[in-house]
Amino acid sequence: MHFLWPHSFWFAVLVPVLVAAYRRLLRGGARHPGLQAAQRGQALARHVPPALFAVAMALLLAAAARPTFPVMLPVDTATVILAMDVSGSMRADDVVPTRLGAAKAAARDFVARLPSSVRVGVVAFSDDAYLAQAPIANRDETIAAIDWLQPQGGTAIGSGLLMSLQSLFPEQRLALDPHPAAMSHPPEGAAYAVILLTDGQNSIGADPVDAARLATALGVRVYTVGIGTPYGQIGDERGWRTAVGIDEKSLGQIASLTGGEYFYASSAPDLRGVYASLGSRVVLAKSETEIGALLCAAAALAATFSAGLSLFWFGRVL
Fold it and tell me: Model pTM?
């Protein structure tokens, strides 16, 4: 929480004055029937209305300082990178027609349903990562880049995430700095997100967690998607079948570090559902919103309870 007018807290000097006035009122209880009743049968209850009134005053004091709180709100400017695993294991057919085929179909639907103002880019990663399509608003070109993807090589998740960040901020030369907190955040009112889909474990290239820390420093949320089943296998030229699995722990850690979320899809319908749910998430950005009105409402409620309890217990407003 941040306060736009912190100097308003100087009014807090009135709090000791109110406390002193209340204590003086208690000492003069013999001249106040309501306080006499409280002292005889409700020693603790007599303090509740004044305490609620004090809470109301404190809330009004905080409201006067114009507090703001970061809230996720829809924005007009959003850029999304689809980081897609195109390693050899994406040929596995445990997800129909194949893992990559299902991923491409879900990605196409996702792109087509986004608001026209959202810019979308495509990054592919296997042994290395490359930018298949820079972020643009043209849906036909983005979908064409998705259709072009073919499975090959290993799984460089960290490199894929790093390339995604570089494509979001092409004017900066990004690296896995051990102290990425010095990086600047996106401008207010702009949303940046990466949807990273993979079916395996990082086997080469940059460390995915280090790349996630860089994303956090840049204010980019990363939503990770694991695709496949425990029974997925791929074959080689010798006919050997090799099981391929998802590193869900790392994917969850990447998402958690960046303020995103991890999803698992074991079928094509599951994956379409995941991408459909992400459509409303990627257009959100943190915005500092004033909450003074909420504090004023809470103060009014506390003051009303204070007066009501005082009338109910003692027959008068103390």
Answer: 0.72
